[in-house]
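FIELD: query
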Amino acid sequence: INFNADLLEDEEIPVNVVTPPPPPPPPQQTTVIEIIDDDEEIEIELEIEDIELDEDTEIEIIDDDDDVDDDTPFMIVENMPALAHCKSMRGDERHQCTQMEIIKYVSKNTKYPSIAKESGIQGTVFVYFVVGKDGYVKDVKILREVDPRLDKEAKRVVETLPRFDPGQQRGKSVSVQYTIPVKFIIR
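FIELD: result
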């Protein structure tokens, strides 16, 4: 057999590196809950140290006041804020009356911006505001915008709402948040 060395070529064979799969995750720990009869007694050991007190020992009194002193607004309180005509009412009737008074006030005092009206721009602007502990409207923000002119007017009219009788929670005045729609419709 006669082999011609020129006819033989070096052929490159690609090397495939196989990476092994990652190890399986460790088995999850399961908690075994032991069911005990209600009649079975469980012994618990408590260590109570004797403390000697005399007349001069000062005892620190811890105030158990769980009320938060910050001004975080509530969404719902025992007594919701009320406008003048609704102050004498209680509960849901007071809340419904105040909602109607807000709608009447906003409808009566909103001025449709002429440029927006001429351009045929209409829609509903959602306005967020807080009735503070003092009963005044504050933190007015536009949540859903329609047009800068309509947004500005909706914010303006909400900022001019009359003073409320503040909301009450556990006998204390608190801030309460509201979100209202202000509709701009061309008729």
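FIELD: remark
The mean pLDDT is 82.
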